[in-house]
C-alpha cells in the first residue's frame, strides 16, 4: 500500500475504528467504502432535518444553481438553448416527488403538460423526464398510469420522448408495472434502471419482451444493504453488465455516468461489437463535467444533459451533495462567503 494511503488508513481507523483494524490488514478499498457510506448517510440524514431544509432553501439557491437550471420552465428551456450551441441536447425534468394528494399530483401533471406547447416549435430534440411519484404513484398506481398516458399522448403529438425515472427500492415494483402498461401503448417512452439495486439484472431481463429504451444509472438513493450493493466496485461492475446486456439485446441504451473508466470501457465495447452510435448515447448532469459533455459531443456521440428545474429542488440538490465530498466543499465555501 502506498505510504500516503497507509497514513490515511491509520487516521481513518483512529476516527472510525472497525474491529478488524487492530488484528489484520484492512484494504484501502474497504476503508474508502466505509467512509463513503458514512458520508452519504450523514449528508442525507442531515438533509432531512427540517431546520437544515429551511436554511438551505432560504440561503442556498446560489449554490443549488450549479446543479439546477432554475425554478421556472423558461429558465430550463434557456439552458437547453445554450447547451445546443455546444452540440449537447437537453432532458427537461420538473423537480418534485412523492406527492400525497390528488391535488398535488394534478398540479405536477399540469406543469409537465405545460412543457410541450412551450417547446413544440424549438428546433432541438424534445426529451422529458418524469417521476411516477409526481403523478400519484403512492396514492394509486392506476392514477399514475392515467396521468402517464396523458403526458405521453401530449408528448407524442410534438415528437417528444419521455423517460420514466426510477426512484427508491420500495417503489420499483409499482414503477415497473406502470412502465410495462405504458410501453404497451406508446413507443416514445423509456425507463431508468439503477445498478446499485440487487434486483436490477433480473428486472432488465423481465423487460426484454418490451425492447425497452433504458437509461442506466448507478443510483443516488440511500438504500438498505438487503436492497442495494454496499460496495462501489460491485455497483460499477453491475453498471457495465447492465449496459452491455441491453446493448447486446439490440436496445437503445443511455449511459448516464460521469465515470471516465466506465465511459472508456463502453466506447471499447461498442467498437469491438460493431454497435452503431445511433443505438446508444451518453447522458450527464447539468452543471457537472461540462468539459466531458463537449468532448463526447465533439467525438460524434449523442450527448444529453439532464436539466432539472422547479421550486422543489431541495431533495435533488441533497442527493448531488451526497454523491461527492467535492460537492459538499463547494457548498461549504459558498456558505462561508455568504
The pLDDT mean sits at: 84
**Name of the top-level CATH class:** Alpha Beta
Neighbour order of strands in the largest sheet: 1-2-3-4-5-6-7-8
Integer-rounded radius of gyration: 21 Å
Structural class comes to alpha/beta
Annotated CATH architecture? Alpha-Beta Barrel
Poorly predicted ranges? 1-35, 42-49, 51-55, 327-338
Compressed to H and E, one letter per element, the order equals: HHHHHHEHHEHEHEHEHEHEHEHH
Strand content: 5-15%
The number of helices is 16
Total individual domains: 1
Shape: globular
CATH topology: TIM Barrel
Features of the shown structure:
338 residues, alpha/beta, TIM Barrel, eight-stranded parallel barrel, 16 helices, globular, disordered N terminus
Please explain how this structure is put together.
It is built from 16 helices and eight strands. It is 53% helix and 12% strand. The chain is globular. With 338 residues, it is of the alpha/beta class. The protein has an eight-stranded parallel β-barrel, surrounded by seven helices. It has one domain (69-312): TIM Barrel (Alpha-Beta Barrel), CATH 3.20.20. Mean pLDDT is 84; it is low at 1-35, 42-49, 51-55 and 327-338. It has helices spanning 3-15, 20-23, 28-47, 50-59, 61-64, 73-84, 102-113, 115-119, 141-157, 172-183, 200-206, 232-248, 260-273, 290-298, 314-323, 325-337; strands at 89-94, 127-130, 161-164, 189-194, 214-217, 253-256, 280-285, 303-309. Helix 9 links the parallel strand 2 and strand 3 (161-164).
Task: Summarize this structure briefly.
This protein has one domain (69-312): TIM Barrel (Alpha-Beta Barrel). 53% of the residues lie in helices and 12% in strands.
Amino acid at each position: 500500500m502506498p505510504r500516503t494511503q497507509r497514513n490515511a488508513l491509520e487516521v481513518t481507523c483512529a476516527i472510525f475504528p472497525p474491529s478488524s483494524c487492530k488484528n489484520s490488514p484492512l484494504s484501502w478499498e474497504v476503508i474508502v467504502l466505509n467512509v463513503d457510506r458514512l458520508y452519504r448517510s450523514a449528508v442525507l440524514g442531515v438533509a432531512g432535518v427540517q431546520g437544515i431544509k429551511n436554511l438551505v432553501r432560504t440561503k442556498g439557491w446560489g449554490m443549488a444553481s450549479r446543479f439546477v437550471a432554475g425554478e421556472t420552465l423558461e429558465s430550463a428551456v434557456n439552458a437547453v438553448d445554450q447547451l445546443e450551441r455546444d452540440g449537447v441536447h437537453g432532458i427537461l425534468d420538473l423537480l418534485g416527488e412523492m406527492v400525497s394528494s390528488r391535488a398535488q399530483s394534478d398540479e405536477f401533471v399540469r406543469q409537465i403538460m405545460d412543457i410541450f406547447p412551450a417547446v413544440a416549435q424549438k428546433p432541438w430534440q424534445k426529451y422529458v423526464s418524469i417521476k411516477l411519484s409526481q403523478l400519484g404513484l403512492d396514492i394509486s398506481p392506476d392514477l399514475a398510469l392515467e396521468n402517464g398516458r396523458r403526458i405521453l399522448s401530449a408528448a407524442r403529438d410534438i415528437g417528444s420522448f419521455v423517460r420514466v425515472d426510477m426512484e427508491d427500492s420500495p417503489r420499483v415494483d409499482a414503477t415497473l408495472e406502470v412502465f410495462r402498461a405504458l410501453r404497451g401503448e406508446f413507443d416514445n417512452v423509456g425507463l431508468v434502471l439503477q445498478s446499485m439495486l440487487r434486483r436490477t439484472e433480473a428486472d432488465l431481463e423481465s423487460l426484454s419482451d418490451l425492447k425497452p429504451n433504458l437509461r442506466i444509472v448507478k443510483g443516488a438513493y440511500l438504500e438498505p444493504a438487503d436492497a442495494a450493493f454496499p460496495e462501489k466496485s460491485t455497483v460499477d461492475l453491475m453498471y457495465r453488465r447492465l449496459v452491455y446486456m441491453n446493448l447486446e439485446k439490440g436496445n437503445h441504451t443511455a449511459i448516464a455516468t460521469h465515470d471516465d473508466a466506465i465511459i472508456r470501457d463502453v466506447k471499447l465495447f461498442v467498437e469491438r461489437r460493431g454497435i452503431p452510435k445511433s443505438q446508444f448515447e451518453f447522458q450527464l448532469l447539468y452543471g457537472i463535467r461540462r468539459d466531458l459533455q463537449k468532448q463526447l459531443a465533439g467525438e460524434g456521440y449523442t450527448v444529453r444533459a439532464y436539466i432539472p428545474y422547479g421550486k422543489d429542488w431541495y431533495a435533488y440538490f441533497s442527493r448531488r451533495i451526497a454523491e461527492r465530498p467535492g460537492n459538499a466543499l463547494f457548498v461549504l465555501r459558498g456558505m462561508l462567503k455568504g
